[in-house]
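Input:
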Amino acid sequence: MSPEPGSSSRTDRTRAALDPMVPRIYSVERIRRNNHDTFTLKLNPADGGKPDPFSAGQFNMLYIFGVGEIPVSISGDPAGDGALMHTIREVGTVTRAMARLKPGNSIGVRGPFGSHWPLETAVGSDVVIVAGGIGLAPLRPVIYQVTANRSRYGRMILLYGARAPKEILYRRQLKAWGGAFDMDVHVTVDRGERDWNGEIGVVTGLIRRAPLDRRGAIALICGPEIMMRFSAQELLRRGMDKDRIYVSMERNMKCGVGLCGHCQYGTRIICRDGPVYRYDDIEPLLGRREV
Amino acid sequence: MADTLENLKSDLLQAPFCEGLSKEHLEILLGCAHEERILKGRFLFHEGATADEFYIIVSGRVGLELDCPNRGGLGIQTCGAGDVVGTSWVIAPFLWRFDAKVLEDSRLLSMDAAILRERCRVDPVFGYAMLERIAQVKAERLDAARLQLLDLYGNPEEGKHVARTRIK
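Output:
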């Protein structure tokens, strides 16, 4: 297992004394467009073996040979023994090269790295997922895991904010999850369009109206840092405790094992003791300039 | 009649807008309130009309929008259960700034704002309690509008050379 959020122990990969710097070669099985600038890669090990097991919230370093390597959260089902899934947004040279991959092409994968969402701590509690934009991708494994073990958890609420209707991620899955009687799904967009009948407004507005069991619930937030800060503040206003709120931080991870310091954030090394943190562990650093 | 009054009172007590209000102030609000059930597609008010009422949503959804020539109503914000619709009743010149369209069949508490304004004027303590709550609503909406302006979910590379790749 990977470290619990906020712990400073090394990742499994390091402990296992495998060389975490050597990528395993995967083959692209499928690449699917999610919206105009986001796509999902489905990868299988080229050696015919199984993908490395991971926990919800962890990330891999994906390497396009000759172009570069980037950290990407895993967006598939942790319990599934199928392919590795990564949802990626085109924002730079490496991601643009990834978008041009074809089935059968090779890609290097190092990982999984980092801490994971506290799904063991959440057993018996309501689970409130707050996602913004592509921040839904690192939380999708949580949804898979909770829905697969539904009786172990209380109420499940997904609050998702996107920029515009056409940029909503996993649209079909959101509809399916929302149609399930045991999960509340609320989606809002910053900017509506004429044929959009859903909510318009920021995700904090959804938090304000969500049916929260403030003492028993656990909240998992992922999205742009400002969105996470405002969401956490709204959850606190709703009476949730800081130690029941978790956030996933994003920095430019390089080595993945806490050696290079590239993703240092104050006293934290995000790739090693993050990316998932309990809110009260990371709060003093949030919103501080030059950290 | 008694049931209706009790229902109104219960709905008012549950509204976040009324949280922390004294019993006397709740009674004033109750005296200005009545229940309305409005079907999807109807408008609560239109931009430019006199703002002589405001609403608290008990159930349903109401969208704030602006009409734009050749584009129709452009949605700005959706209000749901517990939300206040309409704050212009307390800000001169007391004219609606947006249209409010009922997006799904809704049950609302409709408040007679013309009377409330007068009560605010003669009873500054009640007036302050109202202004404090409307300021809270305004602050939340200003925060939301600022976050929307930041375009947090936007692609930093947008407009450069991104998303040219076609994936089958």
